Give the backbone structure.
Amino acid sequence: MNNEELIWKRDSMSDRVNILALLVRSVVKEPNKVNIKEIEEKDSITFEIKTSSADVGQVIGKRGRTIRSINNVMNMLCWKDKKKIHLKILR
Amino acid sequence: MKTFEIKGKTVHEAIQRVLHEYDLREDEVEVEVIEKEKKGLLGLIGAHDARVRIKLKEKVIERKLKAFLNSLLEYLHINADISVKQGDRKVHVEMSGKNLGVLIGKHGQILASIQHILNMQVNNLTDTKVNVYVDVDHYSKYRKNKLEEIAYHALEMVRKTKEKVKLDPMQSWERKEIHRLLSKYSDIHTYSEGIEPYRYVVIEPTNDEK
């Protein structure tokens, strides 16, 4: 895998935010306008996702299918943290 | 594949902007210059911007998918081989390696989620609807065999008891597979009930009007 291209790069602190950004950016139409804030609490982590107003629906998807998928993958990626993941989309 | 028509101060500037915005490489696009930029007299009269049409090439899909999946794998410290096969409106992604169970998840839930996200990503790059199928360690083959077992077992039950049988909740492609497998038998019929993600198949005997 070493010589393969990675969009995501490991840089300790904001790993989780970056990997979530990768997930969200791959879904939206204006990737450059995605902004994510992480709020870590005792037993949960909340991510606040900001996108361009046109992409809000894109991130949520039909009946929340897309955001549910992102949530599923995020929980899989963060199972080691043993914390509940909450995703919030801000308008 | 998707085509953009954009304006820019110069042809070069316009191309670079699109490449940057969508994270593309120069050899992944076809560029057609509609109109070159014109400085005009004193930069005022008759000046106009350049217009270019940029078309994505098919190979963008493979690179983007691989980069995405490799990033996930890197985050999880897992190694896997990824192969991407592109066909007519279809993209098949296959991953193989050790410890890939996490990518499948309970009842293939994670796999379905990853597949949905990749579908969104690929369809942002194309005009026509493209279906992306993701398979980890031949999970879908394994699952299909299992579904066959479930279907025939349920069929026997229905024939024996003459009562309808409700199967466990399944994903849409799994239900479709069950419907397809059992469609050739005329003494029973199948339909789905419930709301996603808990939608399930019901198998009912047909000859109930006696």
